[in-house]
Design a protein that fits this description.
By secondary structure, this protein is α+β, with helices and mostly antiparallel strands. The protein folds into 2 domains: 137 residues, YerB-like fold (3-Layer(bba) Sandwich), CATH 3.50.90.10; 128 residues, 3-Layer(bba) Sandwich (YerB-like fold). It contains 5 helices and 23 strands.
């Protein structure tokens, strides 16, 4: 064999080896890149925070947000006040009757910071019985005589729009609403006021129990829920099986958030029966949420009967199934509908 042919063979062999080596190097480099990318993502997740679960919604958020103090905010629900801004970002919302024929909302906020919140309205004693369970800062505009006394008696850190400095709450002239249905604020303003007044930063309270993931109930169908507070006041929930959430309607209209025009989406619904009676000529109510009573828990298109127990105004309300086991919620927003025991409720 000639030297020329031998040289060609050696060249071909060397090239094949080099290509193989480069292929291995390339594979090794690719593995290193993938490994580095994974480590980078994990590092960014650690820095940005996969977070920890909120004790009131089970949703994950940055630890610094989860461990701060809740805000309990009163929302006006008069027809001339609709729709509310920022309420879709509350993790828990209570709907109670007030003077006939209206209801009012109280949103419990922890992990979210709406840039617009309102309209904000006055306090009632039974809302205070509920908010005491979260050790929050209470945001309101005045209140009934008993509610004002309760704020003082329970030493509640509150932000009252009637006395708060200018810039904490304000009349929103950009919405087509008139006083008293146009008092607004923002979470930024509320947190700043909290800091300026030396209100403690964290809350002392017991949260709810949540499933690790989404779980269905073994119960009755609940694809549509209609709560008839009275002939002029209804609340409805329509189940979306694709999203596994409920959309909300108020008095036959889709309930949207004024802030971004998104429909209110609800994961858990509690219907809580409570004895209710009129106590004065103004039509103010006494709603008894202390003691125990019956109700319903609804999620993922299913419903089960429950019992509720609250030992004192400051104690947490516990919800149990009919076997006495504490309800474990699915992670997400919860709306608590407090109703009279004889309220007509249609569930399909």
């Amino acid at each position: 064999m000639s030297i020329k042919k031998i040289g060609i063979i050696i060249m071909i062999f060397s090239t094949m080896v080099l290509i193989g080596c480069n292929k291995d190097v390339g594979r090794e480099t690719e593995d290193e890149i993938l490994k580095g990318s994974k480590e980078k993502v994990e590092k960014e997740q650690d820095e940005e925070g996969v977070g920890i679960p909120s004790p009131i919604s089970g949703l994950y958020a940055l630890e610094e947000k989860v461990k701060r103090r809740p805000m309990a905010i009163m929302f006006d629900n008069h027809p001339k006040a609709r729709w509310q801004s920022g309420i879709s970002q509350a993790e828990i919302v209570y709907e109670y009757l007030v003077e006939a024929p209206y209801t009012r909302y109280m949103g419990i906020f922890l992990i979210n910071d709406p840039e617009s919140i309102g309209p904000i309205r006055s306090a009632r004693p039974y809302f205070i019985s509920s908010l005491l369970e979260y050790d929050p800062i209470y945001v309101r505009v005045g209140g009934s005589p008993q509610a004002k006394d309760d704020v003082l008696a329970f030493n509640i850190d509150d932000i009252d729009g009637l006395v708060a400095p200018k810039g904490v709450l304000w009349r929103n002239t950009k919405v087509n609403k008139k006083s008293p249905h146009n008092t607004y604020t923002s979470m930024e303003a509320l947190r700043a006021y909290q800091k300026e007044n030396g209100y403690k930063e964290t809350g002392d309270y017991v949260g709810f129990k949540f499933n690790d993931g989404d779980r269905d109930l073994e119960g009755f169908d609940a694809n549509k829920v209609i709560i008839n507070y009275n002939s002029q006041n209804t609340t409805s929930y329509i189940y979306d099986p694709k999203e596994k959430e409920y959309s909300r309607e108020k008095d036959g209209q889709l309930h949207i958030d004024e802030l971004d025009h998104s429909p209110i989406r609800v994961k858990n619904i509690i219907i809580q029966e409570a004895e209710t009676k009129i106590i004065d000529d103004s039509g103010r109510l006494f709603i008894d949420v202390i003691g125990e009573g019956r109700g319903k828990y609804i999620t993922n298109g299913k419903m089960v009967d429950i019992k509720w127990v609250k030992q004192s105004r400051s104690n947490k309300t516990y919800y149990h199934d009919e076997n006495g086991r504490e309800i474990i919620f699915n992670p997400g927003a919860t709306w608590i509908q407090v109703v009279k025991p004889d309220t007509i409720i249609d569930i399909e």
